[in-house]
User: Which sequence fits this backbone?
């Protein structure tokens, strides 16, 4: 069965794995939020927050909100070969469920023209009468990323207006054939007042993912 990310429901994911949604927790987000920012980053945050003046995040259209407020914060978390990307394709085979779609953004390793390995994905909540919850789509996208290497947590977030909510998804041991997934989410972070904290969390996730990838490479080389 094939489904797009936007059409995924929680019941579809429950057919693939046993979902254990822990809910809103303090960790690892409080620890991530302690990541320090440079003076240059603090200056850029100040400039970014000034863009809120005269803007009503709940009223401006999604494209404007994304380009002026959400994406620029992702760009500030770039480092080395990790870049901020928009409209990133995500696909995966989850049991009998084939998932295919596009997430609004990602911080990902990649070349000069395309992302190769997302470290954090972002889904923007859509508005209108046909809008769907971004949560199930985010979980499905993270499951696709985690299916290749179940041992490592995967990170993402969804935005509603200028509010950011982060999620950590990790495959775990289960007595059933479907497997088990644990999901932890953060509280909402308001970009108007907590842009610095959001950037600290983004930087911490990138650092954690790069460290995990480096460890995997070293371990693979040692086994070889």
Assistant:
């Amino acid at each position: 069965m094939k489904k797009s990310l936007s059409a995924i429901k929680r019941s579809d994911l429950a057919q693939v794995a046993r979902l254990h949604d822990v809910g809103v927790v303090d960790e690892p987000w409080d620890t991530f939020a302690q990541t320090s920012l440079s003076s240059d980053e603090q200056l850029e945050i100040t400039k970014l927050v000034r863009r809120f003046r005269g803007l009503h995040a709940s009223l401006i259209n999604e494209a404007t909100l994304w380009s002026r407020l959400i994406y620029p914060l992702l760009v500030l978390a770039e480092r080395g070969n990790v870049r901020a990307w928009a409209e990133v394709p995500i696909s995966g085979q989850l049991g009998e469920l084939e998932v295919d779609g596009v997430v609004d953004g990602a911080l990902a390793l990649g070349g000069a023209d395309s992302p190769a390995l997302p470290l954090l994905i972002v889904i923007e909540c859509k508005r209108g009468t046909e809008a769907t919850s971004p949560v199930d789509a985010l979980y499905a996208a993270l499951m696709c990323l985690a299916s290749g290497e179940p041992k490592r947590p995967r990170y993402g977030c969804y935005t509603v207006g200028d509010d950011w909510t982060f999620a950590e998804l990790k495959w775990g041991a289960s007595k059933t054939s479907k497997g088990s997934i644990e999901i932890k989410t953060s509280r909402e972070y308001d970009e108007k007042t907590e842009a610095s904290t959001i950037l600290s969390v983004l930087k911490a996730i990138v650092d954690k993912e790069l460290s995990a990838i480096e460890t995997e490479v070293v371990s693979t080389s040692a086994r070889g």
Notes: The CA atoms of residues 22 and 184 lie 5 Å apart.
